[in-house]
Write a structure and sequence with these properties.
mainly alpha, transmembrane helix, 14 helices, membrane, AtHST-like, transferase, homogentisate phytyltransferase activity, globular
């Protein structure tokens, strides 16, 4: 009996770990931070304060966005099993931890739950989730499969992460707080920053995947321009992001604490360049580590910016 119980526990633990990998944790963390960050910004700008009634709107948005996230990254894995066996052999479908049918069931379930929860929570959230799922489907699924084309692939990623998520979440929370559905300057600043930042993520993510993408005729900027050129381009795009938002601080935009904005982003910019000097583009693991570092900078923005709004 104890042996059976132990086997069941191991199976559950292994399944949950495989599901965690399937969900692509770095995207799950980014999605979670974006939800809570936009909520804090909405509260700061509306000056309404926190209340228990708001919790349903926040949790609904969080659950819907997380499920939508798993749908999008899961669908991509379903269509990229052979490529992932070369580029990302640790992923559950590529490694055989999940069967193709299990992957399909997870993806369909997550997509349905995302839409239902969004529909029950609010119209702006439903618009956000539906449009994100549609773009994610067009990105991965034949015959459209926009990920084959560098421009359209990048556009899919930064339009969802940069524009739809930020504007949609703010409008949702503003609506939940009973305010007029308008976008204030501070939210436009964050949206443009994340939009450009996500472009850097979109082009950088293909550097460690060069081998598999080339073998399966997935055209990327890395294949067209070379790893060094894309690495440098991503660094300078991120630099423009940080310099731009520091300029916003100097110009003293309404709803944002200028001193906090300038100092924090200057420190992060300096840290990014120092970290980039140690990256060996011949070492795939070093490139992957720096890619994860860029995602950490992405997370950090969703912490720093709402603090700047709350301190305004």
């Amino acid at each position: 009996m104890n042996q059976i119980s132990g086997q069941s526990s191991n199976f559950q633990g292994n399944w949950l770990y495989a599901f965690w990998k399937f969900s692509r944790p770095h995207t799950i963390i980014g999605t979670s931070l974006s939800v809570w960050s936009l909520y804090l910004i909405a509260v700061a700008i509306s000056a309404t304060g926190f209340s228990n009634e708001q919790l349903i709107s926040v949790l609904g948005a969080w659950i819907a966005c997380l499920c939508g996230n798993v749908y999008i990254v899961g669908l991509n894995q379903l269509e990229d099993v052979e490529i992932d066996k070369i580029n990302k052999p640790h992923l559950p479908l590529a490694s055989g931890e999940f069967s193709h049918k299990q992957g399909q069931l997870i993806v369909i379930t997550m997509g349905v739950v995302a839409l239902v929860v969004a529909w029950l929570t609010g119209p702006f959230l439903l618009g956000l989730v539906a449009s994100s799922l549609a773009i994610g489907t067009a990105y991965s699924l034949p015959p459209i499969r926009l990920k084959r084309f560098p421009f359209w692939a990048a556009l899919c990623i930064f339009s969802v992460r940069g524009t739809i998520v930020n504007l949609g979440l703010f409008l949702h929370f503003n609506w939940a707080l009973g305010k007029t559905p308008t976008i204030p300057p501070a939210v436009w600043v964050l949206t443009i920053f994340i939009l450009v930042f996500t472009f850097a993520i979109a082009i950088f993510k293909d550097i460690p995947d060069l081998e598999g993408d080339r073998l399966y005729n997935i055209t990327t900027f890395t294949i067209q321009l070379g790893p060094q050129a894309v690495f440098n381009l991503a660094l300078w795009v991120l630099t423009v992001c940080y310099l731009g938002i520091m300029l916003i601080g100097v110009l003293n935009f309404p709803g944002i604490n200028p001193m906090f904005l300038v100092i924090t982003h200057l420190i992060v910019l300096a840290g990014m360049w120092m970290r980039s000097l140690g990256v060996d583009l011949e070492d795939k693991s070093a490139i992957a580590d720096f890619y994860q570092f860029i995602w950490k900078l992405f997370y950090l923005e969703y912490i720093m910016f709402p603090i700047a709004c709350l301190l305004a």
